[in-house]
Amino acid sequence: MTLKELNTLSAEEASSWFEQCCAAKTWIYQMVKVRPYSDKDALVNQAKSAWAKCSDDDYLEAFTAHPMIGDVDSLRKKFANTKAIAAGEQSGTASASEAVLHQLKEANHAYLDKHGFIFIICATGLSAQTMLEALQARLPNTTKQEITNAAAEQIKITLLRINKALD
């Protein structure tokens, strides 16, 4: 997709395109309504600005579109519309030992039980061990702090996906 093509999509088509980058409906609406974008920088700046205006509920909505780190079944089932641009985001788990994968699974479930949403991290380029260490470090945080942390990770993921999806 080129920026010119994105600018000329119908609102419904543009919403679908933005949804593959971030599933928060408020964010998607903000991204669609301000088109056309003059250049990629304008698009990126709007993505950041729209995200900053989102509420905790919007953040939580975006988090539901993510598979749990290292959960292969979850990776296969969750939101097929992000498959093309999200491919490789968790590649660091592919070469992880069984022990690390087991620890990731256990810590992920503890995080979900405590905070009510899955652990969000921009996993691109991170090893499973690095993700596990980050998860373990963030697990003791308050839920409010984790919403903030996860939202900061979400915008990194969103920007990576925007850049990947644009030609």
Provide a descriptive summary of the structure in words.
It is a single chain. The chain is 64% helix and 0% strand. By secondary structure, it is mostly helical. Helix 3 (25-33) packs antiparallel against helix 4, helix 4 (40-52) runs antiparallel to helix 10 (143-165) and helix 5 crosses helix 10 (143-165). It is elongated.
What is the CA–CA distance across the termini? Answer: 6 Å
Query: How many β strands by DSSP?
Result: 0
Note the beta-strand portion: under 5%
Q: What can be said about the biggest beta sheet?
A: none
Helix and strand succession? HHHHHHHHHH
Q: What ranges have pLDDT less than 50 throughout 5 or more consecutive residues?
A: 78-85
Task: Tell me the Rg in angstroms.
Answer: 16 Å
**Helix run count:** 10
Overall average residue pLDDT: 88
Structural class: mainly alpha
Helix content: 55-70%
Overall, the morphology is elongated
Compact overview of the structure:
The protein is mostly helical and 167 residues long. It has 10 helices and no strands.
